Description:
Shape: globular
Number of strands: 13
Strand content: 25-35%
CATH architecture: Alpha-Beta Complex
Amino acid sequence: MKLICIGRNYTEHIAELQNERPTEPVVFIKPDTAILLKKQPFFIPDFSDDVHHEVEVLVKINRVGKHIDKKFAHKYYNEIGLGIDFTARDLQSQLKAKGLPWEKAKSFDGAAVVGEWLPKSDFSDENNITFSLEKNEKIVQKGNTSHMLWKIDEIIEYVSKYFTLKIGDIIFTGTPAGVSKVCANDKLKGFIENKEMFSITVK
């Protein structure tokens, strides 16, 4: 099982990090060891002083597929969830400056929160899902999948050109603006619409 992550998929987030708007999806992979175990706190790693939260809508793949046409992509998932892509921003900046891969900053142990799952049938339109992240009971990120540069079915079509999608694979679809540093004792809660999808403590 792998986690396929899409970067720079919300215009305002691109702007806040002063990144260049991509002409095609930015893709990176997290291993399954990056998944934060259920009911466990997130421990800030000792190699970073600037870990940021990035809340994202998730999609769980339910069948094997390769070179999937967009018009068939909806058949490859039936669950939608919410998670966090934790990013060691200081380490990522150092790696980017040297033209090196991001994995150490994005794929370390515990760097991926995978919350609860909801049936896709719960949503009238997966391209119009509101989601948010609370930090210490204050909303710090809020987004809607309608604002994604590449929608879910387009992402599935694109990534399946390069990677065979397998049952249980999870796609992180990108984060909206509002990313910020997490500190010890922060409480993070994620919501799709008004439904709580995860709750974690930072240590």
